[in-house]
Amino acid sequence: MNGNLTIINAASLVCISDRNRPRAGKAQGELDIIRGGAVAIREGEIVSVGTTAEILKKYGDDTELLDATGKTVLPGLVECHSHPIFAGNRHWEYVRRLEGASGKDIRAEGGGIWSTIVNTRKASDEELISNTVRAFNQIAAGGVTTLEVKSGYGLDKEGELRLLRLLKEAAQQTPMDIVVTFLGAHIAPQDGRSTAEFVESVKKEMLPAVAEQGIAESQDLSCENGDFSASQAKELIEISSSFGLPVHVHADASSDSRGWRTAVEGHALSADHLTYTPDEEIFSVGATDTVAVLLPVAEQFYLDERKANGRLFIRNNVPVAVATDYCSSFQATSLPLTIAAACSWFKFTPAEAIVGATLNAAYALGKNRDRGSLDVGKRGDITIFNCEHPNQLGTAIGAPIVDKSISRGNIIWESMNKI
Fold first, then answer.
1. Among 39, 172, 192, 323, which one is most buried in terms of CB atoms within 10 A?
2. Number of structural domains, the chain?
């Protein structure tokens, strides 16, 4: 595990060079492919990228060579939206949705996020860590090298701090790099506390404790009708900024809540979901540095009446990322499948979706300085696919085409299937 590796003979070395900002507009579909490419990693850091002949001339004799003949080499996949720590299973809710039940109906029948909160509070630490590590293993099999994980199923100070602590403990049992996010304002409480009282508890109790303990790298919050209003979300964004915690916003997932505008005006790293963001709001907000994180599998699972207007975001020079939204409702573990789903669901090109799962996802996490692209000086994080061209990530739907995952120059996952 010395972090020294030279990858050679890649049919497609997909660099996605970092231009000091997330990719948007036309640039979202540019992959910067080197045919017969190679990359040299030393002590966990990329030191050279080029053709195989160029790299072998400089770095051919001093370390292990990994032959990627016939394969596509990407920056390590970045999964930028997941909720892996919870107890209980809500599979019956999906059946009820298919039968025509509404979210309100399901909550009346004892389902919804609140049911997960109740089950999570009852679960032992050991059960929650076991569930989380199982999710980590499944997600890693999809080629992910960096994984963002949220709390959010505690919904009070003690519960949220517990989940953040357990996420840190579970992170020691995976070779993926885990990025921990505090999600206190996930949904409005259903235990008698008013929304206003709960927002005050997030501001005055939870956030100060999270910041003091240094137990999370960012705050996520919901800006959703029925949960937290745009004005309440703005309050939470402002207090988070005062603690030096960057922000993500669950926005417009079930209705137009002004979540996209609120996130952008608050300089959030990302706004996620955006299923019901009005076209007029996308037009009026215009180009942004805030990344729009779209969740195609989630939209299909929730049987939404509409889908996020991914093409309009791209046309308006908004950087777009894609993610699985692994959560208690449905356990989507495959980021490659999500890439393929983004193509068919949003009519993205494979290149646009791939940028959304690498460089733009890294920007969405504030991790762009050291990952998301194959640039000299960045971490040696690589995902290798058993296909000759990256377009095949859009057509090999559900196929086990991940060959290897590499973190800081060390192989952390390898397929047993040689295809």
1. 39
2. 2
